Amino acid sequence: MTYTAYRQQLPQNGRWEYPLSPISTFTPESRHTLWYKKPAMGVSNPWMEYSLPIGNGSLGASLFGGVMNDEIQFNEKTLWAGGPKDINPRGGDGPGSGFGCFLNFGGVFVKNLNTEAFDGTSAKNVLNYVRYLDLDKGIGGVNFSDKAGTKYTRRYLASAPDGVIAARYTAEGANKLHLVFRLIPGEELHADNATYSADGTGSFHGKLQTVYHNARIKVVPVGGTLRATDEGIEVDGASEVLLFLCGGTSFDSFSAERTSGDATQLANRVKGIVDAAAAKSWDELLSAHTADFTSYMGRVDLQLTPNPSKRNTEELVKYYGGSQSSKNSPDGLFLEELYFHFGRYLGISSSRGAQHVPNNLQGIWNNRANAPWNSDVHTNINIQMNYWPIEQTNLSECHEPFLNFIIDNAKSYGWMTAAKRSGQTKGWTVLHRK
Questions:
Q1: Is-contact 114 18, C-beta < 8 A?
Q2: Where does 253-381 have alpha helices with state H?
Q3: Interval 44-94: pLDDT, tens
Q4: Which helix or strand (DSSP H or E) is residue 62 part of?
């Protein structure tokens, strides 16, 4: 089963989520934080409107924050259908467009089985719910509690130092965690269902026109029991569970064919990354990630008002759009400040690392196999707009993937052929869509 089909069968009795009461007050740890009083749901496209993006420059995820089903939809920026010689457009979006396309890698779905705490009735509902994204530190979070007083936390990060997306689930109180972790491939990946092992791992793999791909999770509980089934990795009775996720491809920017190695080599590389991260404690992962991420975010500060708004982000956006006086108010100015820092956050999260691949029309985040304009590197103006703020806001390292992409493709079949088609006898021409 692939991503979209799996998501469609998630609702229970027509409901996406348990009865839920939001937190009454919330003071974020960091000034620049997006926060919400409900999971990403209730609109026609919750991924676009309300999911929260994290990324380490190449590996990214969109966080939904559900309690009944927690969804971590993920991407890796080199997961492309098509090949380096695809320069003949056939129309439309998707793998058959003639230009290739950026694909959805899939999702990790974490199903809650703890009926002692939550059963879908008002007698056992979710209390004190809040969901947030700390822009200053690059950390996502969810907090909530149950009627027995057990407090639950979830933390998410995309680590550049360790090359993984990591999540930590905790329960503090009488009730414990009972969760099933399932890894689901995206559409058009030519991948079988994930397989799971007793060591808490799960993986799937496949081959596109040009690149091999491989995705892997590892689940590490503290206390309780762990077992692997055809449905995923089930953990029962734990007070803490760590999740590690990595996805990669055989893309190689130094090869004219844009790929190197085989499926086994890729699988070993992805496994090695996951195993190395899983050998560390959460505190070690968090410390390394925070030091790395803040070394970029901390280079610039912009404050337009003395104090941050006390409104949650959804309320703040609605307030800002209400009138001109709202825009000019301290809360309105704070939203503009938040918007500035969110732009830097997205650049840091989507354009770093050794790969010579820039971010694309959607950064590195995409939940479809037929994304608008293929979620491609659109060179008429869009990719340039992505990088306009980079140098001005002291993020020169984040510019390098784009500059190296140009250098590499100046010698490529596609760009040199485009030059000949336009009448040039030497040199190269940037393709409008790549």
A1: no
A2: 263-278, 282-297, 313-320, 324-328, 330-350
A3: 999 999 999 999 999 999 999 999 999 999 999 999 998 887 666 656 666
A4: strand 59-63
Place of tokens 């990595």: 246
Phi-psi region of 238 (alpha: psi -120 to 50; beta: other; left: phi over 0): beta
DSSP β-ladder status, 126-134 and 20-22:
parallel
What pTM does this model have? 0.95
Average pLDDT for residues 273-279, to the nearest whole number? Answer: 98
Rg of the chain, C-alpha, whole Å: 22
Of the chain, the end-to-end C-alpha distance in Å amounts to: 29
Burial class from Cβ neighbours inside 10 Å (0-12, 13-18, 19+) for residue 183 reads buried
CA distance 177 to 77: 33
CB–CB of 242/226 below 8 Å?
no
Cα 285 to chain center, whole Å? 17
Residue 396, SS3? helix
User: Mapping DSSP to helix (H, G, I), strand (E, B) and coil, where does residue 334 land?
Assistant: helix
Dihedral (Cα; 380, 385, 386, 388), 10-degree rounding: 130
- Given a contact cutoff of 8 angstroms between Cβ atoms, the answer to whether 177 and 154 are in contact is no
Give the type of residue at 35.
Answer: W
Residues 6+ apart with CB under 8 A from 433: 89, 99, 373, 374, 376, 377, 378, 379
CB 334 within 8 Å of CB 143: no
- Ramachandran angles phi, psi of 392, nearest 5°: -65, -25
Between CA 380 and CA 351 the distance in angstroms is 19
Burial state string for 123-140 with b = 16 or more CB within 10 A and e = fewer than 16: ebbbbbbbbbbbbbbbbb
